Amino acid sequence: MSGLNLDQLEAFSVIVREKSFSKAAEMMHLTQSALSIRISKLEAEIETDLFIRDGRTIRLSKYGELYLPFVQRILALTQESKMMLHQAMNEEKLHLHIGTTSRIATYLLPSLLEQFQNVMPQVDISIQTGLSEEVLEMLHDYTIHIALINDPPEDERWDKLLLFRDRILLISSPDHPLYGNIAVINNFLLTPCMACPSSMPKIPPPTSVL
Fold first, then answer.
1. Which CATH number applies to 94-148: 3.90.980.10, 1.10.150.120, 3.40.190.10, 3.40.50.1860?
2. Could you tell me the pTM of the whole model?
3. Residue 183 — very low, low, confident or very high, per pLDDT cuts 50/70/90?
């Protein structure tokens, strides 16, 4: 004997409920022959007939009536055990709250989170966005677990890890005064007063090409 299985027990229960092999097969998305095979295997396993077939009608045999409450209990316990396990798994699911800027959330996080979820599918992730200062406040208030921001905080309480370095390119047209003046451009960008129009250095004529 191959042993009982839940598919056979479910087939028996549905046939009893629907009072018809054809209706039960439709409910279970099976052909009627496939359903009949399940019942035949079940009857062979328990070595008795569960149904009395009279033409196109069926009814439970006396052994089928005795067997039905046990089948219903087995199916109910199976469903209850599944629900209990799912509930336990949901309670144990890890949560990760991330705070970051809108730019990082839009352009960097999607690919990172996809890779992370492939490795850690059991972690439930939520994201909050704000300015870097606001995100650090969230971290300070324990609203989030980790922060992804542009500028490293000076606060020594936080562990910091550099993830990316942005490469910023300066591009100008050939007829612009900055074109070809690498040294002047560097000095201009590094000066503390670069935002003050009155202190902008004069640009000499082009002498080289970027």
1. 3.40.190.10
2. 0.45
3. low
